[in-house]
């Protein structure tokens, strides 16, 4: 039976703190930021991390690490109140990155997301909703989130740039401040003529941890989009 996984060390209040959720056979568990970053940079199709991520969970099967999830603020953290009126920046999270290896069986993605949500409910009680975007490159239009009972709030088109096998959000092309720009972003800008732009759809999903705030959502809930791939196909990235 899935349940919380606790630290071997007692907290300041004398009780062990939860560090994960699941079973010995399959669970999500906190891992160091550097370990999560390494997994995402080497395995995720974007090859990039979101610097603001602060919830880092490894996915484990029989104690073998087979994936990672990273949660944090949106690219523009203050945009939360434009999605759900009145939301403070510590009252929501975005699933910034997710990757699972091929050794994880079918439905592992939705299982990992579900376990991660249970962990967040316990460890971040101020969080009222979680947002995620299904990228068109992943296929499935968000079947993972539909399986976890996220609500669907439409899609929009973003420009992404591809250069030497790496992908960048259009924002990477616009950052001019050298103190805020990474070396990779500078390289993209210097080689813009070689980079290929792609117009890709992104599908917005929201999981309501506090149903009372759903009425404050500024977006219109829509029916789930139909899948353009086999419903049994695994979606390994986010």
Helices and strands in order, then pairings?
Elements (H helix, E strand, L loop, with lengths): L2 E8 L5 E7 L4 E4 L2 H11 L11 E7 L2 E9 L7 H4 L8 E9 L7 H16 L5 E7 L7 H5 L3 E13 L2 E4 L13 H8 L5 E13 L30
Parallel strand pairs: 6-7
Antiparallel strand pairs: 1-2, 2-3, 3-4, 4-5, 5-6, 7-10, 8-9, 8-10
Keywords:
10 strands; disordered C terminus; alpha+beta; globular; 238 residues; 10-stranded mixed sheet
Provide a descriptive summary of the structure in words.
The structure is a single chain. This protein is α+β, with helices and mostly antiparallel strands and 238 residues long. It contains 5 helices and 10 strands. It has a 10-stranded mixed β-sheet, sandwiched between helices. Strand 4 (55-61) and strand 5 form a beta hairpin. The longest helix is centred in the middle third of the chain and has 16 residues, at 108-123. The radius of gyration is 18 Å and the shape is globular. It starts with a strand and ends in a 30-residue tail after the last strand.
